[in-house]
Amino acid sequence: MRTFRLLMLLLPILMFNRGIAEDWPCWRGPRGDGSSHDANLPIRWNGLTGEGVHWKVELPGSGHASPVVLGNAVFVVGCDESAEERYLICLDRDTGQQRWKRVVIQSPLESKHRLNSHASSTPATDGKHVFVSFLEVDGRLVPAPNVGSPRDITPGTMVIACYDYDGKLQWRKNVGSFLSAHGYCSNPVLFKDLVIVNGDHDGDSYIVALRKSDGEVVWKSERKHKTRSYCTPLIRRHQNQFQMVLSGSQHIMSMNPETGEPHWFLEGPTEQFVASMVEKDGDFFAVAGYPTYHVISINGGGAGNITNSHVNWHVTNARCYVPSPVVVGNYLVVADDRGTANCFSVLDGTRVWQERLGRSYSASLVTFDGQVAFIADDGIVKIVKPGPTCEVLAENPLGEWCSSSPAIADGQWFIRGEKHLFCIGKRQNTNP
User: Fold this and answer.
1) Burial, 123: exposed, middle or buried (Cβ in 10 Å; 0-12, 13-18, 19+)?
2) CB neighbours of 52 closer than 8 A, spacing ≥ 6?
3) What Rg do the C-alpha atoms of the chain give, in angstroms?
4) Residue 334 burial (CB < 10 Å; 0-12/13-18/19+)?
5) Could you state, in order of their start, the residue ranges of all structural domains in the chain?
6) Computed from CA positions of residues 311, 316, 321, 324, in that sequence, does the dihedral angle turn out positive or negative?
7) What is the model's pLDDT at position 19?
8) What is the pLDDT of residues 277-301, one digit of tens each?
């Protein structure tokens, strides 16, 4: 009887650990690191034949932002280039049917890199409201700073807007200037009662925190190097304090997300950053960048300038730039832009393996149940199990080009292709 009672007590814990039904409320998911606790995801499907596809809906316009999912709502942004409109769409999770669509801004199209889009910033939601970010320009042209060949580009202002779940605008704020020849992509991050957005650009750079309820600025921290980067802050609690860590503007930095005050910083190791950072046991991992390439592990327990004191390891043997990495156990898994997968030991930076898996990569990696999904630009999705060798478990065609990072929520994939949004797999928990 005692054994039976013990088993009854342990059963909920065992079930909980087997796989947790999670939402995907923001860029890179509930922890901001591309990880899901879901153990019930399908690893085989075919977007061409419809095998394993729950629904597939055509999206208006274009965009590279990821979908976000919370409860029965799926949010995605896009741009109608002919009408010069940037919009937010809410879809029904079960059917893919559009609930509503709202134009957030209408302005001339900003200058951008050929691989960027005019709707690349992923929304964030807290279950009551959804927050979006776009660049608003007025059509002016100025000489582009920090570029190889001279050209004119469009200056603008960062716009943050808040909508409720019925699509009613709650507030809309212009939070500061922005200038970059590569275009715009600043993903909102939610922390307590704040919306935090990275404003690294080729001008008077900053990071700004707004109050969720009304959009008022709570703090705004200047960035000293004034260089474009596109990293999304990662927030962790470490050594009894919250750390907001991001690479960009020619350095890697930890800040207090409640105040914007710095904890520590590391100079370099390069000029421009795109990939978001990840963390394991108080160590932070960055992949970068341009013009030089780096993979670096940083002990997050320092203060002030830690350039020469808190680097665990630093290697330069992977040409990583755009896709964000994941941590799986003791492995740091990285995709370089040219289609190569790299697996490093988180302990000492030893490269465990390197394999060419795809044509090229723009989408960031996601991990679930000890596996990693690589989505190549041609839409081929490979499911890999990291270990001493690169074990490819499945290869799935999406059927169209894909530059967006996926979302995972309660047994389902949400993948945005060039033309469609795919919902793959069966939902495990049908509660709203």
Assistant:
1) buried
2) 42, 44, 45, 46, 424, 425
3) 21
4) buried
5) 23-424
6) negative
7) 53
8) 999 999 999 998 889 999 999 999 9
Cα(217)–Cα(72) distance, integer angstroms: 31
> By the 8 A CB rule, do 220 and 208 touch?
yes
Dihedral angle computed from the Cα positions of residues 385, 386, 390 and 393, in that order, rounded to the nearest 10 degrees = 0
| Rounded Cα gap, residues 221 and 176, in angstroms | 12
Tell me which amino acid residue 21 is.
A
Q: Consecutive 10-residue runs of the chain (432 residues): their mean pLDDT? A: 38 41 95 96 97 97 97 98 98 98 97 96 98 96 93 97 98 97 97 98 96 98 92 93 94 97 95 94 94 95 96 94 96 93 97 94 97 97 97 98 97 97 89 55
Residues in contact with 98: Cβ distance below 8 Å, sequence separation at least 6, in sequence order: 57, 89, 90, 91, 92
Cα dihedral 65, 68, 72, 77 in deg (nearest 10): -30
Q: Are strands 304-305 and 311-315 parallel, antiparallel or unpaired?
A: unpaired
Closest C-alpha among 167, 172, 206 to residue 186: 206
- Give the Cβ contact number of residue 14 at 10 Å: 9
Amino acid at 210: L
Instruction: Indicate the fold that domain 23-424 takes in CATH.
Output: Methylamine Dehydrogenase; Chain H (2.130.10)
Query: ∠ CA 99-35-325 to the nearest 5 degrees?
Result: 110
Q: Which residue has 């350095």 as its token pair?
A: 251
